Amino acid sequence: MRLVLIGPPGAGKGTQATLLGRRFGIPHISTGDLFRENVSHGTPLGQEARRYLDAGELVPDHVTGAMVRRRLEEPDARRGFLLDGFPRTVEQAHALTTILARTGAVLDAVVEFDAPEHIVVERLRGRGRSDDTEEVIRHRQQVYRRQTAPLLAHYTDIVLTVHAVGTVEEITDRALEALADLPGAA
Ligand code: AMP
């Protein structure tokens, strides 16, 4: 199964992606995690990405796209994947289509985790990652609304919306129910 997870920062995409990836036996690929690993290892990519993460801005597409392409070319991603945090713009969605087309692959679904802003902001305040300061939290919500939310219209034919307020288990159950009809979800 090839899935993209979309939702505002704090919607719980990362937690759900880990659980769903285990369930379906496909890798959970988080661009935020890949960037943070590069930052902590001090790689050239990490050095370039760091200031964007700190500011809550999107890392430029040429950096992000190349990183995702390399990751998707690894053998474990051949059979499927859960992309968490990519694409985040319509341009990145086009780049993803191009990457997948090289092997004749297409996305099966885009899962939208939907939760009101005051709830996701409250979750982020309690999380304490280095980009979870009040100002950066607000800015990342704005980036989501302006740059990422338009993807829902772009993917309208394959979007499955999951109500993302509740316990982790409740939200996983809703996601599994939404995905139940896809091939490979049994
Ligand atoms: P996340 O872990 O998904 O909240 O992402 C943390 C940060 O990584 C974001 O605020 C961006 O700075 C950067 N980032 C993650 N994914 C992308 C992406 N697809 N495009 C550009 N920047 C990204």
Protein model, in words:
Helices cover 53% and strands 12% of the residues. The chain has 186 residues and is of the alpha/beta class. It has a domain of 125 residues: P-loop containing nucleotide triphosphate hydrolases (Rossmann fold, 3-Layer(aba) Sandwich), CATH 3.40.50. A five-stranded parallel sheet has the order 2-3-1-4-5. The radius of gyration is 16 Å and the shape is globular. The mean pLDDT is 96. Bound molecules: adenosine monophosphate. Adenosine monophosphate (AMP) binds next to α2 and α3.
Short characterization:
This protein is an alpha/beta fold and 186 residues long. Helices cover 53% and strands 12% of the residues. It has a domain of 125 residues: Rossmann fold (3-Layer(aba) Sandwich).
State the major sheet.
Answer: 5 strands, parallel
How does the overall form come out from the CA principal axes?
globular
Which percent range describes the beta-strand content?
5-15%
Helix tally equals 9
Question: What class would the helix/strand composition place it in?
Answer: alpha/beta
Characteristics:
186 residues, alpha/beta, Rossmann fold, 5 strands, globular, binds adenosine monophosphate
